[in-house]
Amino acid sequence: MTIAEMYLDDIWNKTKEIMKNSDLIDRIVYDTYFHESFLRDLNEEKASIVVPTQLQKVILIQESSFIADSLNVVLDKQVTCDIYLESEFNKRHAPVPVIDHRKPIDLRDDGVLPFYTFDNFVVGPSNKESHSAALACAYNPGKFYNPLFIFGNSGLGKTHLLNAIGNYVKKMSFDKRVMYTSGSDFVSKVVQSIKDNRIEDFKMEMQSVDVLLMDDIQFLAGKEKSHEIFFHIFNELVNNRRQIILTSDRHPTEIKGLEERLISRFSSGLSVGVDSPEFETSLAILKKKMEHHSVDPDLVDDEVLSYIATNFSKDVRKLEGALNRLIFYSINFSTDKRIDFKTASAAFKGQSAAADKNELSANKIKKVVSDYYGLTKQQLVSKSRTKNIANARHIAMYLCRKHLDLPFIKIGEEFGKRDHSTVISSCEKIERQIKNDDMMLIALREIEKSLI
Fold first, then answer.
1. Which residues contact 447 (CB under 8 A, 6 or more apart)?
2. Is the pLDDT of residue 49 over 70?
3. For residue 351, what pLDDT band results from cuts at 50, 70 and 90?
4. What domains can you pick out in the chain, each with its CATH number?
5. Of 168, 241, 323, 444, which shows the fewest CB atoms inside 10 Å?
């Protein structure tokens, strides 16, 4: 590193310390968007700041006055700031502000749950992408990803992120109007509004919000009138650059019974998935939950937390349920002050073993299919296109879809990170064979008996 680079780094580290400790931005915003920035050039009038991603660039451009003020404290002189991507050092971009001339209205109940925030959301590799996108939408609604579509199995934090967005917007932009609802509640309100002859009033109320948070959008599937109403609401909000965030248990292209025009619009923004938490994230979630329950983590042995994180990490709800079970048991049936592995074993006696034995999973399907065809699980997920291996792979994918109802993207990840279109093709191929090939039907029935 040259002397000049050391000088710039020293100035920028001091500037970042000022920004990090400022009351003008949240710490989580600083960590996500400001921390990875660098000061690349400095002259008497201008500072050139570089960031690694387009989203960070947009955020820092919007906060350029705040950055310049912090930098001026360190330099003791006035300079302006230009923000660049590493790959486009000579390109500038400034977002066009949107002026909202509408009169505010008072929504009696926005539906947002106050205890779900970004501060108590534990970030890990399984949800880092969805967290970053959610925070971007909360930080500047309607400007980045619209709509934002978050998908994943139940219990992985989608509802938490939705409400965290709502709470952040309400805290930072009190003039913004936020509404949280679920797909099923939306359908019920449409039905009731039609009965009361108030459907136009309902549409106007929905179209007046700045941030619409809709959980479990898959419940609109098959509801034609709700499709029509939501289609018009969606278009009105997006056209006026209001933010829409939707969640579902699967990718929009995989929701059966949804109109193609809605699928197209849901896919037009950004779709991000959330997966089951990995071990380290599960541990962090447990510690956060213990903090919420006012339980001292030092009173719980590390091997106990490791046991819970290993055996109950399919989703966050199972983790929390296991922790609640442990706390309940230790208070009512244990005389020890510490919660050790002996106490945990008694609290969870038979639970994890029963889950492993009875719960059907993608791994169990892969094992049963590979055993039936005399293959290894490694061969099943390999790149091999040998006919017998490919046929077994198609069957295993089909059974994962049929019995687990997994999203095509998730099935693709289970079978060597294959593209979801490959999975769709495999499932359709088996469905055609079942109708015309008795041997295939017999084989499937024998395999399914082994899955029980």
1. 368, 369, 372, 395, 399
2. yes
3. low
4. 3-85 (3.30.300.180), 128-273 (3.40.50.300), 279-357 (1.10.8), 362-451 (1.10.1750.10)
5. 241
